[in-house]
């Protein structure tokens, strides 16, 4: 630990200075030698560090979502070059470079607070051993050694013997009970945080090895905290319990207000957003407009929850604009999708001409033929024969007229020379 302490000595003095400043504030309220003053100083240090790490946390969220988006492409590369690990690594790095993603970005908050963790551990370990660290002088050192949290000294560990615990002015039972409860709470908060991420904020439409890794970490991290926690001083357990609770609350806020596309949390969020929009008549907050804008920009690539959201807005008489603003407008027809293209239901409901039965078609044929005959007859030139011969040849004329009409309908020429028959018909 001396090697680690020397590596992070550059931050030990600032951490000890921050703790002392918080101790002055809380010491004036609860007393300088109380566990509340020193315990709240550690909690305040955690909150200050996590506030400073919020930009990294936002970057972590974006990187994690980008990695989830790339999972199908990564799986294709793994299957394509499963026998060539070097080519597989090269293609992976090329994919990361083209998309601007970094797999290590999800670990940035943990890596960033690691120096503070080791610095705090070194400070609390110095309190346990009676060594002055940073700006903590002898007076502050004696005050910290007297501070107890629920009967357990800040510098006591679960593995300490009775002689060491008695030297700190406490009983071994109190130290074991307090440290055990804090270790269980620390592991449980870590498990709940990871489980919340896996069950609510993961795209369930894509099954990838990344999800299996996250599921494995859900059980590995709590076990690691439990194993290493028995060697942490009470002050460090306070630090880790506070940071786990902060992470859990921060993640709950993100999942509720900015969920991962395709997750259960997004479906619940869009349902709440639809109720809010229909109640207030449009989007109000900037975050709501940003999410609606992203959904509209996807077009045909929207997932099921996003399509339901847009269709529900249309049925309620609202229109989602490209800039994320939702305004009152005419509802789209039920048979159309949100992008204006006919849906499957519309194609099924499209009116088709009624199909006639065989008897109807047969009855319609003579009528059509009669109409054709009347047209042909009306277009025939008037007969120039004298009226005296009309009576003598009336019957023959009727026969010849009907024969002429039948020949005209069969495609033969009515007057003039007929076409010679082909030799094959002779």
Strand sequence of the main sheet, in spatial order?
1-2
Radius of gyration: 43 Å
Q: Describe the main β-sheet briefly.
A: 2 strands, antiparallel
Report helical residue fraction.
55-70%
Mean of residue pLDDT values: 74
Shape: elongated
Low-confidence stretches: 331-351, 366-416
List the helices and strands and how they pair.
Layout (H helix, E strand, L loop, with lengths): L1 H6 L1 H22 L4 H18 L1 H27 L4 H15 L8 H22 L8 H9 L1 E2 L2 E2 L8 H6 L4 H29 L8 H21 L4 H24 L6 H17 L5 H13 L5 H12 L2 E3 L5 E3 L15 H6 L8 H22 L8 H5 L1 H16 L17
Antiparallel strand pairs: 1-2, 3-4
Account of the protein in words:
The structure is a single chain. Mean pLDDT is 74; it is low at 331-351 and 366-416. This protein has a two-stranded antiparallel sheet. Strands 3-4 form a two-stranded antiparallel sheet. It is 68% helix and 2% strand. The chain contains 18 helices and 4 strands. It has helices spanning 2-7, 9-30, 35-52, 54-80, 85-99, 108-129, 138-146, 162-167, 172-200, 209-229, 234-257, 264-280, 286-298, 304-315, 344-349, 358-379, 388-392, 394-409, and strands at 148-149, 152-153, 318-320, 326-328. The chain is an all-alpha fold.
Gist of the model:
The protein is an all-alpha fold and 426 residues long. It has helices at residues 2-7, 9-30, 35-52, 54-80, 85-99, 108-129, 138-146, 162-167, 172-200, 209-229, 234-257, 264-280, 286-298, 304-315, 344-349, 358-379, 388-392, 394-409, and strands at 148-149, 152-153, 318-320, 326-328.
């Amino acid at each position: 630990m001396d090697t680690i302490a020397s590596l992070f000595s550059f931050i030990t003095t600032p951490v000890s200075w921050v703790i002392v400043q918080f101790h002055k504030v809380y010491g004036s309220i609860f007393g300088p030698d109380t566990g509340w003053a020193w315990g709240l100083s550690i909690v305040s240090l955690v909150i200050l560090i996590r506030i400073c790490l919020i930009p990294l946390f936002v970057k972590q969220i974006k990187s994690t979502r980008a990695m989830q988006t790339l999972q199908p492409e990564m799986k294709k590369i793994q299957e394509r070059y499963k026998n060539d690990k070097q080519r597989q690594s090269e293609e992976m790095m090329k994919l990361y470079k083209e998309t601007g993603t970094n797999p290590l970005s999800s670990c940035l908050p943990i890596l960033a607070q690691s120096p503070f963790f080791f610095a705090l551990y070194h400070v609390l370990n110095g309190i346990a051993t009676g060594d002055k660290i940073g700006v903590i002088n002898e007076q502050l050192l004696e005050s910290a050694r007297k501070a107890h949290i629920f009967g357990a000294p800040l510098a006591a560990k679960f593995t300490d013997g009775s002689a060491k615990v008695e030297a700190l002015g406490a009983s071994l039972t109190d130290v074991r009970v307090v440290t055990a409860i804090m270790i269980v709470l620390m592991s449980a908060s870590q498990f709940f945080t990871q489980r919340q991420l896996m069950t609510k904020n993961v795209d369930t439409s894509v099954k990838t090895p990344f999800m299996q890794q996250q599921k494995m970490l859900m059980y590995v991290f709590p076990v690691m905290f439990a194993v290493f926690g028995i060697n942490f001083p009470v002050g460090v357990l306070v630090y880790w319990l506070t940071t786990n609770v902060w992470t859990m609350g921060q993640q709950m806020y993100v999942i509720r207000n900015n969920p991962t596309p395709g997750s259960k949390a997004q479906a619940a969020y869009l349902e709440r957003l639809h109720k809010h929009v229909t109640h207030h008549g449009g989007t109000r907050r900037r975050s709501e407009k940003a999410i609606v804008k992203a959904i509209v920009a996807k077009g045909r690539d929207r997932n099921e929850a996003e399509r339901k959201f847009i269709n529900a807005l249309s049925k309620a008489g609202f229109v989602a604009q490209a800039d994320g603003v939702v305004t009152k407008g005419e509802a789209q027809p039920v048979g159309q999708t949100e992008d204006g293209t006919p849906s499957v239901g519309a194609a099924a409901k499209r009116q088709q001409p009624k199909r006639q039965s065989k008897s109807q078609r047969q009855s319609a044929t003579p009528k059509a033929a009669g109409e054709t005959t009347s047209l042909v007859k009306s277009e025939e030139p008037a007969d120039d024969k004298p009226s005296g011969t009309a009576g003598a040849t009336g019957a023959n004329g009727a026969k010849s007229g009907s024969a002429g009409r039948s020949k005209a309908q069969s495609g033969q020429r009515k007057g003039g020379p007929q076409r010679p028959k082909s030799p094959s018909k002779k």
